[in-house]
Amino acid sequence: MSGMNGIQRQWDDFHSYVERRDVIFYYVGYFSQTIIAAMADAVKLRVEHAGAVAQTRRKLFSSFIEMAQNIVHYSADSYEKEGNSEASMRHGAVFISLTDERYYLHCANPVNAVVAEKLREKLEHLRSLTIDEIKLEYKETLRAETPADSKGAGLGFLTMARDASAPLEFELSPASGEGKDSGTSMFYLRATI
What we know:
By secondary structure, the chain is α+β, with helices and mostly antiparallel strands. It has a single domain (about 5-190), classed as 2-Layer Sandwich (Heat Shock Protein 90). The protein has 6 helices and 6 strands. It is globular and about 40 Å long.
């Protein structure tokens, strides 16, 4: 269990961060399509209750779904029930906070080294673009064919970047530990709506 101490410390830091914010939705645990659907209903209700206008609700909901899907596709921490042919569940966390009339969507999950590098490249590229360039790339990606090895059309980060009021923020922190956790990074992402 000594390998989990570093990850546990990072999760504890994450939870501490959550407690200091005006959090309107928070979930940490395993993600599956069924769980995402249930969370989506809860997010819709919480955001409506918080008084967000229709356009803001759409952007929040869309970005929330993209973050949750990224956890399902890329989290290095998975749970597969033995003998079950269903897709594995992946571990991560998401939360939405409201501060000074701005919504912040956060997610965190462990990723392996190859995924970490791909995420870094995609997000650094997006951070270098203007909003008009992001919108153009979004339209071009919609028209392009999805690569055979892709887990989606590549629209997730583009959707979040297009809907955000500030550049996406991210961090990849090496996860400390031994065994199955070595070579793993914690991926943190924040979108401001």
